[in-house]
Amino acid sequence: MTVTRPARLTGAALCAALALIAAVWILQDLAEIGSPADLARYWTGDHHVLIQGRSATSLIDAVLLAASAAAAVAALRSRHAASALAAVGTVTLALRLPGLWAPGSGALVTALLELALAAGLVLTAAVGRRRAEAPHEREPTRPRTGPAIAAGVLLALAALLVILWELYWAGELPTEFTVDRFTGGRSVVKPALAPPPGWLSVIAVGLYGTAAVSCLLRARHSRAFGLLAAAFLAAGGAAGVARAVRSETLPRLGDLTSAGAADVLTAVFELLAGLAVLVLLAGRGVPAPPGPHPAAGGGGPAPPPPPPAAGGRAGGGRRGAAR
After folding, report:
1. Which of 14, 43, 109, 229 is the most buried (most CB within 10 A)?
2. pLDDT tens by residue, 214-241
3. Strand (E) or helix (H) holding 3
């Protein structure tokens, strides 16, 4: 499947708008905090910066900014950008939905605007597809078998770890706090634009699981969803490793509780697994099996050429014999 030129231009414009919204919020937070290092510390959970409560963005906004910009470039450069547009649109829809009931008019307006843009992005990717009509319009490449299976296993393990941690917190926290983790209640302290942590875990499991199955099946959309999942996975792992480095817990894992040590090891795994999946899926792929090319005026394959007439031009019989 390829994407029509109007759909590609529309998708690129929608992705650019999503990237612009994220960039405006990040620049506003940067102007408020005054230092990129402090903003990075806020994104990675520095409690001293969190107490100030001056930032509306999180590390998710940075990942969405990069993903939207990459999808816009892909839509302008490739006829096979439908998967990238659909992946960015679907994930943005899921992540911004809690903003509809978040406090603060700025967050609500941003959520409404981004939900509309993301819905338009998914719709554009769906209705703008067409089957390749010429031999030179090749199907998108799929990742090679070895890297695809390795990436699928890593993403499946990441999804399993998220599920296990949510089960752990459900058993450790009171019921009210557990519900707040998914709905964004008063007990949850987070940036204004960030989804609740439990909601984010559900989205992560869905994204990692979808990408893992796609990679194991070597589907056409495995590269787009896999790279997006790897970006979120590596970002979450980097945040956890940064917290461990600041608290100096990496050199003394043996002194931590079981849950504390498992948290640090999970962050290290997420960072390494995310980077590994990025490398595995960013490599050169193999062409997808060619499908039948429809005729110029119909939906089925073109009819075979008629056989040469007897007694035709000189050489016709030679070509027939050669066949």
Report:
1. 229
2. 999 999 889 999 999 999 999 999 999 9
3. strand 2-3
